[in-house]
Design a protein that fits this description.
Blueprint (H helix, E strand, L loop, with lengths): L10 H9 L16 H14 L2
Helix pairs in contact: 1-2
């Protein structure tokens, strides 16, 4: 697969762009979320643990 890398100021926007693609699949990782909102919530919680 050939992809085009885009810079984005918003983590939510980037996550939504990737997750909501027609043939997108999560193939691994240590996060339990499967939707944009779940993943953003988890990363926000993690960010607050590291001041």
């Amino acid at each position: 697969m050939i992809t085009k890398v885009k810079a984005n100021k918003s983590f939510r926007g980037t996550t939504k762009y990737v997750i909501e693609k027609e043939k997108a699949k999560i193939i691994g990782g240590n996060m339990y979320g499967r939707t944009t909102n779940e993943l953003v919530e988890q990363f926000t919680l993690s960010a607050h643990l590291n001041p």
